Amino acid sequence: MDKGSSIAIIGGGIAGLTTGLVLQERGYHVTIFERDHTPMNRASGNPAGILDPSLTNRESLEGQFYHTAMSRALDFYSSLGQQIFLSRGLLKFARDSSDDTLCFPDLGVISPPKIRDILAKKLRIRNNINITHFTHTQKWHLFAGDKPQATADAIVICGGPLARDSSFANHLPLEAVRGQITYLNAEKNDNLPRKALCGKGYLTPPFDMNGGATIVSGASFSRNDTDLSLRGDDHRENLENAEILWPGISKREITGGRCAIRAYSPDHMPICGPVADQEQYQAAYEMLKHGPKHQNFIPAPYVPNFYAVTGLGARGFLSAPLLGNLITALICGDPLPVTQAVYESLHPARFLIRALKKEK
Ligand SMILES: Cc1cc2nc3c(=O)[nH]c(=O)nc-3n(C[C@H](O)[C@H](O)[C@H](O)COP(=O)(O)OP(=O)(O)OC[C@H]3O[C@@H](n4cnc5c(N)ncnc54)[C@H](O)[C@@H]3O)c2cc1C
Questions:
Q1: 116 C-alpha vs ligand 1 centroid, how far in Å?
Q2: 15 CA distance to ligand 1 centroid (A)?
Q3: pLDDT tens digit string along 260-307?
Q4: Would you say 218 and 49 are in contact if contact means Cβ atoms under 8 Å apart?
Q5: CB contact at 8 A, 318 and 324
Q6: Mutation test residue for ligand 1: of 18, 19, 34, the one with most atoms within 8 Å of CB
Q7: Domains along the chain?
Q8: Are 23 and 321 in contact (CB under 8 A)?
């Protein structure tokens, strides 16, 4: 798309803000629509986010993606200023006795509220607007109920689990997974971790939250559960995992917690790229079910200028900056920041293709 084209981003979480910033820096006219009174108020609204590396085999597509994402995230957050980091240094504990514990001195804990404050100043964000539907006639027309909100040359859906509410993207197989974190009193701060600790759960070092020293322990994982009330059982689960990481920590007073919904794809890789027109796509590639003989296909039929960045799962702060770069490269025709194979492992249409091949 030509520089200066208008791009509407639906959803002001970390995916929407990082994507919006990279697009804006490449010369596009970006507006972010957020249904809440402030951006980064849902999954991206925790007081602390761990940059937890994936230890998946580096040869695998997932390993390659998260390895590239990790260095991109470090560059991106460092460029916003060192105050973004609540602490540096992360210990990743062995999954079983054959693994070593690994230390990552540059990774650590970032502050989502500080990221929000910095990015919100740089971007045009329209809060309190719940985009309910959009239509396409040459341009995209966005509506909140019966009120037209904007026209745009392109749309990027960054709505977390709510991407599946859009009639154009409801074939994306997203699962909503509830997560709860637990706040622990760290006022008497002798014998507390000085680095982030990651194992089955995670623990942050103490940091200042609303004037009191706090440690965050997380995060519970309940599939197909969208209830946002805090649960005693989830606090207990978090503390059991925390106790393995730092014996004695579970005796500390619980001062609160927070709950939100993550969006997961079935293969747990994010979903990032142009959205297919489901019916036309299935018709165009139907012959895939007959196996590898049928090699000649027409170019992919996509919904025009319509993209998605969602399914960021439990590592959204790590992956969002690279996904923002990928969408921007696709929109402006730059070389991709990942290999073609990694791009295909993130592509929104991969589930349609897999389903067709399965019919073979
Ligand atoms: C308890 C918990 C702990 C976590 N801990 C970590 C961690 O330590 N490290 C890490 O990397 N990740 C962590 N994650 C995961 C991370 O928070 C998510 O992957 C990330 O926040 C997803 O970002 P997002 O922008 O895709 O979604 P969201 O942050 O959910 O943003 C989507 C936004 O879109 C808006 N929206 C949706 N539909 C519309 C619409 N129709 N119109 C307007 N606006 C709309 C929503 O209001 C929302 O603000 C955690 C998640 C949870 C729940």
A1: 12
A2: 8
A3: 999 999 999 999 999 999 899 888 898 888 877 767 888 889 999 999
A4: no
A5: no
A6: 34
A7: 6-49+117-174+266-358 (3.50.50.60), 176-261 (3.30.9.10)
A8: no
